[in-house]
Amino acid sequence: MAEIEREAMEFDVVIVGAGPAGLSAAIRLKQLDADLNVVVLEKGSEVGAHILSGAVLDPSGLDRLIPDWKKKGAPITVPVRKDNFYMLGEAGQLRIPNSLMPPLMNNHGNYIVSMGNVCRWMAEQAEEMGVEIFPGMSCSQVIYGETGEVKGVVAGEFGLNADGTPGDAYEPGMELHGKYVFFAEGVRGSLSKEVIAQYDLGKNSDVAKFGVGMKEIWEIDPAKHREGTVTHTMGWPLGGNAGGGSFIYHLDNNQVYVGFVVHLNYANPYLSPYQEFQRFKHHPVVADLLKGGKRIAYGARAISEGGWQSIPKVAFPGGVLLGCSAGLVNVPRIKGNHNAMFSGIHAAEAAFEAIKAERSGDVLDAYESALRKGPIAKDLKKVRNVKPLWSKYGLLASLSLGGLDMWVNNLLGFSILGTLKHGKSDAESTGLAADHKPIDYPKPDGVLSFDRLTNVSFSMTNHEESQPAHLKLKDASVPISVNLPKYAEPAQRYCPAGVYEVVEEEGQEPRFVINFQNCVHCKTCDIKDPSQNINWTVPQGGDGPNYPNM
Lowest mean pLDDT: which of 98-107, 272-281, 372-381, 534-543? Predict the structure, then answer.
């Protein structure tokens, strides 16, 4: 494949990913100089097709980017009217008074939104300003320049056979070169992962940490709908098995977002995050809310949870990391979209100054500085110890010590605990099967809870089956020879889309099967596989989920 000749196009800035970070960068660049040549490349079939977020939006980033967003018709119309925090037991719940929560946890002034629709609207604003946006264009390769700088990306390669050779309708794609390349791929993006390794960007930061978030959209009985109500829960059904919790957001049109997050540093390889989510909906409080309603959409994605201490170096020769590619989520607030927008704004301003000074391909140190000294730092530093406390000592320690630490940070501007370390990676945290017991999950009832494949059909996921599997094994023997005997091959359970199977047929050796057509691009396998044997790469452009209102 190295001999393939491709046409090249030159731009001032190439942006990989049309999420809130990438689109904010594009818009800000055009605000600063309407003549800049800016392109945004999106692997989804349309802008928003691969966007999945809770989401309660802190509008501070958008206020900075487009102050008159209300006048411009942004799909941000449901303000948060009520905040609820509950600790769940199997049959009951205990409300945590709002007065005990640090002020930063208050959702006053925030909005319940579909970030997919917000991004669709942002893309319209960008295109009106002259930004070129190309959906259905997977970026499969980083291009490096003569001095080792990032020079561009390869996008739009189509028509490979299953064995990786060019098929009859093969299209080699194009090289898109930029004076600077912004990687805004979301969590664990394949090209972002490559440049982090290429430039050793994580050498001075803590280990990256992640969760997996699963979400359903439900239409419920209008009598039970409370527009603007936000509810978060902790505790059951996870208990001591894993960290995590739920969210239930009442948006408009009698719809609610029902979501569940499981931290991926859990030890028991028999745990299934998806099954925990389905079991959660049978809690009396949730079941009563959903009774008589119907699920209309499903999706899943990984969430960056490392916070402040896990942010890698974000600027490198010729490029930068934006948003979730850099890991800018505030874990206790369950918010990252505002920080993604701020990162796009900061990177655009740094690139504008550099291009104005006739620079290209160098390190945008001004972006690094702005991220580490500006609103993103202010947001993330205050909460940096919540996640490591939870990981090491459990939920109660995180609530008590973490809450105290956030209060002191809020009142006095410093942490009583300093900066705690995360410890092991999520893959390394996986325990041996011999040390844990299988978990007996109830069968889905088809009313409140559903099997994975049925739910995946509600993500509108599709992949061209003749292409190579985009989920690549470094060693094809490892799942059966290593992961099955040591860890009961947890890929069967940690994947929220049923991609991985161990098939055992009488008289034959077990086989590891990858149903890549089911993949919702959550990246959990790339993160949690205990042998780090699975490499998530992009399929051809336009493939994957087609989320309508996530």
Answer: 98-107
d(CA 258, CA 344): 29
Burial of residue 404 (CB within 10 Å: 0-12, 13-18, 19+) is middle
Q: Do 341 and 61 touch, CB atoms closer than 8 A?
A: yes
pLDDT in tens, 4-30: 889 999 999 999 999 999 999 999 999
List the structure tokens of 215: 């979400």
**Domain 78-112+208-304 top-level CATH class:** alpha beta
Indicate the pTM of the whole model.
0.96
Where helices occur in 382-523 by DSSP H, the ranges are 386-393, 395-397, 403-412, 452-456, 478, 484-487, 491-494
Q: Which helix (H) or strand (E) holds 10?
A: strand 8-16
Radius of gyration of the chain (CA): 22
3-state class (DSSP) for residue 548? coil
Q: Which residues of 461-498 are buried (b: 16+ CB within 10 A; e: fewer)?
A: bebeeebbbbbbbeeeebbeeebbebbbbbbbbbbbbb
Domain ranges of the chain: 8-69+116-205+312-381, 78-112+208-304, 433-442+454-536
Q: What are phi and psi of 403, to 5 degrees?
A: -65, -45
pLDDT digits 0-9 by tens, 189-235: 999 999 999 999 999 999 999 999 999 999 999 999 999 999 999 99
> Per-residue pLDDT for 146 more than 80?
yes
The CATH number corresponding to 433-442+454-536 among 3.30.70.20, 3.40.1440.60, 3.40.50.300, 3.30.360.10 equals: 3.30.70.20
CATH fold for the domain made of 8-69+116-205+312-381? FAD/NAD(P)-binding domain (3.50.50)
